[in-house]
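DM from R.C. (forwarded with permission)

"hey, sorry to bug you on a friday — could you get me a structure for this? deadline for the figure draft is monday and I only need the backbone to look sensible"
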Amino acid sequence: VLILALCRCSLTSGAAGLQPECKAYLDRKGFASPEALKSTITQCSVNKAMQDPYAPDPVSDIPGVTDTTPLSCRYGHPSLFNAAGGTCCGWKPHFNWVVATCDPNSHQQDSAFCSGLPDCVAKNGKDSCGAKVNYVAAYQYDGEEFVLLDESTAGTVTPDGVEGSFAQGTGWEQVKNNFTWRSGDWTSKFAPWGEGPTGPRGLTPPAMLWVLSADSFYYGAFYMLSQLTLNLEGQGYPTGTNCWNWELDPVEGALGWLPKGAKLPGNMNQAYATNNAAVSGCMPVTYFASQANGLRRNFSQPEQFVKFCQGHPGAAGCKPWEEDVMWSGGIHGTQRFENYANQPYVFAVVVDHRGYWIYRWIPDETTGHTGWPGIERTKAARRLRKRPDAVTDPAGLETDVRGDVHEAVILQPSVPPEAACLRASIEAPNFQFGADALGAMAAQLGEYSPGGALEGAQNWWAHFADTEQYQDYPLSIAGVPKSQLLEEEAAMDCNQLGKFGCDCKLPPKARRLEASAEQKPQAIPVAAKEIVKGISYGPMPCKAPCVTEQDDFMSEAAKHLWGPRGRADLQIMRQLGANSVRLYGNNPELDHSGFLDEAHKLDLKVSIGISDFPYTQHEGACAFTGMDCFNQIKESYLLNLKTGFLTESKTYHPAIREVIVVNEPDLKLGLVPAQFTKGVISAIDGILEAEKEAGVVGTPINLTVAYSFGICLPCTLGDSRPALGQMLHLQEAIHDPLKYGYQPRNDLVTFFYTRFSNSFNTANPADSVKAEFLDHYEQHFPNTPVTIQEYNPPHFDLSDDLPKIIKMAENSTLLTGISFFEFQIRYDKGGSEMDFGMFGLGDFSLSSFDYFGGEFQSWCLHPRTRDGKLLPDVVSAAYGGDGVDYSSLCVPDPAKVTLSPSGFEQIAAQRNASRMAAFLTRVVEHFGASISDEESLKTFSGQFASPDSQRSYSDIFAELSGSPAWVRWPSKVSCLADRLSSAGEIGAAIGWACQNMPEFNCSSDIPAACAEDIWALGDYVFSTYYSLQGDAASALEGCYFGGAASLAGPARLEELAARSAPCGTLSTTTFQLSSVGLSAGDGNSTGSGDGGRRLATGRLAEDVVMVGGADGEVEDAAYLATFMALAAALSSCAAMATLRRSKSGGPTKAASTATASAAAVGSSTFEVDGG
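My reply, with the result:
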């Protein structure tokens, strides 16, 4: 026993027994032995009682098949450690198939992957072009041949094999209901599942084969999961988990990957292959070719292609350090099959020591034969030889396979032990990559089995046999650079909702393998990318040095500047030709959905900055925590995700282009790379963690870091080129974060190659940017885009320079564009900062507004001149915009003035018929009506525009009271919150209405659901107020509130209900022409401004006493939640400072502090009894 123990000890001490890459891994990471690595990674605890009833039998009755008892996996996937982790811990390599289709069933009619498809896809029967399956077969390799497993085969099983014909209603059609599996993201799913040891064993090492034959597979999915997952989900999650630890998707439609309506990466009938949807630490994946080769400048993995790349060094994938290739497929890869409608195909999927091999054949029209003897269109033999005939058609050897190609093969390479140590060497030793390396060492040392020193650490690839699928193929079967698809992607016309069809086909390929294998991939075609034409936006509303409480100009508080009822800055940017806006200040507690919605409506993308606050501006900032920004940024970004960044479906808001993690960290997070780079990578890690915690789905947005254009003297990388050294240090830290003193929680490398772009700010002219930066950047970052986030050389002729930098972006493979710095002069900063800004502030005030406790004016804009040219004209010419009508900027706007005598006089004084028509249209629409005859409106408007007109405000209502034929009146109306107003104005109006409804108590009569949304709350209160006016109701007295409300007819009510359900039953009123008349007032009711706030505050202060009593105790938490949300909207939380939690004695968290900005936000969250 002692001798055996000493022998075992020698295996795991130091690097004895390990092969070179695994030895090198320990040295690089500073581990003395595999056991030292093991001590840093959590091992899960097996609970056999929870797992055994659902896990398949580890022992096969087929000779030569691997006994999986020693292959128990106890590292590497988060599901092994959750509350139900005992079910998953120790799972073994048993896998089986799933077929997912859009066939409707009695339990589910639609799904994420099937929504919006044409009827020809989403219906059953012979008229469908979706999935017409003949049979599905599962084969276990026994060391010599593949043997059919009857219990995992869906077809007519015979002594000779399996048969099935969709056309004849046999095979799959007869038995598929025996395989019905839990649906969800797909409308219908089928899989072999059962009750653990007595159910299907699934397929295991030494090799596996699945076959799907279909008369049509235009759209659908054929993928593989662990047998344990299939059993658990089939039985309805009996232990609370499904152990979704591993997934292989050889053939999958991509519709469910993205938000509804977004463009797909390919046409809808291009089915993707991917192996990284759920990654196990016991069966590593490559991701990118450069990563699989350890970011080295020599090719070593996969081993079988080394000789090929030596003979063909210019072939796709052989020099990933020059142009990378995604080997794990998915949205970032090129591994996809175009499938034609009603075209028979046969798919075969092999898993062996070399990787995942995915074949597709068009079976012979006469014989039904394929390239694998024994596999045919309507039948397959019981025993098959270990590999098919070699694929020889060049069109089937470059992954992006057209629908008419008769034979094709795609490989997703394996990561056996030495390759796993190399792949993990560029990553932090975390739960995934640390487990990958430990599993590799356990395999090399033979210490993976129960009782072994590294028990539960696995590399399952080591237990698969080489079935000799590789037949001198080119490396392009594992993927080609995405740049080779750009011409194809530009021609796609079947990749978006509304364009899906039943006969989607791409044109013939421009390239074929034999013509391009030795050529370096071409540069990105100009037409294939949208150039970023952005404008930096920080419109401080003062004309002299000033200080504001906050500088978040995405918030509702700044709506008087960016909103359509305000100065309409976003509309002006669009007129200038901009397609993007770059922001700086960002208070994550404030709602940003209104700004994003308005930008999206204008087709503007938004580059959102994270403010300096979590980095440097408070006591808990990461500048005071050793520049580890993980916790600060995670907390901040989680709030951002909840306040507008995410839609209700938890996808990113479609207006967001990217998030700028930090602006110029090299100037503010410490002046040496070790400091500011640690801050950046920890912040990125915090964002990724926040996304996971928030459950973000769909296409993730890009992140970027905007460096200064300074030369980083302390940087040891970058050859003293401006910005380049900073970027190279970040890249190094991404791959080796421990060198920078940081241990990441997430996979930063995959993030970097799939979601990151570089950026910088500069005042240098275009020629300087090219010579000093861009010419050198592309050598270091051949695949990473870069954007200029601030661009404006103040001492150069912009009319010459701006078109030059745009042209440079058009011709560059990597420069995506610029953001012009900036929209408005920053008078508050003074000095040289006033050299920037294309607009100054004029002397006409469009409105006054409260901006975080300060009263400011929304000054009109006037264009700035440089070198004798108007700067907005220069920008518009470079951006291809229509330009701005400057004459309308500093005069009253009919779309914005109040509906009052004073507003009328402002427009009438302009003597412009079209502007008066716009004002009259607003008046009509305020009543819930619409214009039915534009010519008659034009005639009536002209009566007010002539120089000698004596027409007055009252004449408008005299005309409308006579029910003119050019107005279409509604039958019923409801008074609703005007979405063009700001949340603060809505809150003030609510307060005024509540104060003036003695028959309605806002404190108790408002449904609790209304507290969640200031707009819904306004709808409920305003509609109630107006209906209580009865026959005496005047639309401009009872439903205006200084512009916070207007009447809505049936059409608008239906539109509102379609967007979001009201929080309660809205009061409606039968429309009467008498409501059109004027009352004694001028139409500008007092429900706005400070008066409304004071009235509301007084009322709510009384309510605090009424509900809480003299001691501030609150008995009704549900009521209090509604009350507090209402109070937040009314900016009156000072009245609640004495509130205490009911019965607990502890202070109400944030009751007295969270509302300094609540009037602008419109809603806040308060803690009541811990809720």
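R.C.: lifesaver. Residues 1-13, 510-528, 1079-1125, 1127-1171 have pLDDT under 50 and may be disordered.
me: no worries. The chain has 37 helices and 35 strands.
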